Amino acid sequence: MALRFGASLVIAGHPWNGTLAKSPGIPTRKGMSSFDFTPVLANRIVSVITIDRAEDAEPLAQALLDGGLDAMEVTFRTEAAPEAIRRIKAAFPKVHLGAGTLLTGEQVVKALAAGATFGLAPGLNPEVVRFSHERGLGFIPGVMTPTDVEIALSLGCMVQKFFPADVAGGVKMLKTLAGPYAHTGVKFIPLGGVSATTLKEYLAAPGVAAVGGSWIADRSLIKAGDWAGITSLAKKAVAIASGREEEDPLE
């Protein structure tokens, strides 16, 4: 027996006829994103870097590569970001190069023009995700709640950034999210407050494909040109991720 109401029910601006049809505003996962993140996540660490001087791009990328890391996220937090991406792409074309902190369609266009192959954001903006997918840019949105996860899944995002990881519940929250969502195949990249000392714990959490590491190439190390220090931190992180960690803990 069908339920009838005296007035039309409106959800998100759309009349509801009593059936659970697909929302016209939220596309299904099928066909939304065909980008393969497998190579990006192979080492299980994505180095997150903020560059103030474009000329630091090449030596920084070389330092990370020397440490065994070939997946990098250049954040769009500085004016130097697009040029830094261009320089890294030209010098190291095989690097898995992402553009982070993409908050607008304009930034997506700049990231693509610079040579980024995937994009990331701290939050979940459906318009930016759709805009990126329409232009062939793989996108990793930021999520923090079950609602975020479901919206991101509906947009075709099977890899999501759990941000800010530490204040959003850390490993305990990731374990909780695995309960209702592990069967979907969704994978997470925790970022935000993750450190060398918690890297192993995060990598062992269910559903975690990789960890975003900003401590490896800290902004202060880049400004100081401490390429050897960055390489050392990268090597130690890779050792932990691969199960070959040294006895001495990372500082």
How many β-strands, per DSSP? 11
Q: What about the largest sheet? A: 6 strands, parallel
Distance between the termini: 66 Å
Radius of gyration of CA atoms, rounded to a whole number: 20 Å
Number of helices: 9
- Provide the helix percentage: 25-40%
Structural class: alpha/beta
Mean pLDDT equals 89
Q: What strand line-up does the widest sheet have? A: 7-6-5-4-3-11
Binned strand content: 15-25%
Bulk shape:
globular
Low-confidence stretches: 1-31, 247-251
How do the helices and strands follow one another from N- to C-terminus?
EEEHEHEHEHEEHEHEHEHH
Outline the structure in words.
The chain starts with 8 loop residues before the first strand and ends in a 10-residue tail after the last helix. Helix 1 runs parallel beside helix 9. With 251 residues, the chain is α/β, with parallel strands linked by helices. It has a six-stranded parallel sheet with strand order 7-6-5-4-3-11. It is globular and about 45 Å long. It contains nine helices and eleven strands.
Describe this protein with a few key phrases.
251 residues, alpha/beta, six-stranded parallel β-sheet, three-stranded parallel β-sheet, disordered N terminus, disordered C terminus
How do the helices and strands line up, and which of them pair or pack?
Layout: E1 9-11, E2 14-16, E3 45-49, H1 57-66, E4 71-75, H2 81-91, E5 96-100, H3 105-114, E6 118-120, H4 126-134, E7 138-140, E8 142-143, H5 146-154, E9 159-162, H6 170-181, E10 187-190, H7 199-203, E11 211-213, H8 219-224, H9 227-241
Parallel strand pairs: 3-4, 3-11, 4-5, 5-6, 6-7, 8-9, 9-10
Antiparallel strand pairs: 1-2
Helix pairs in contact: 1-9, 2-3
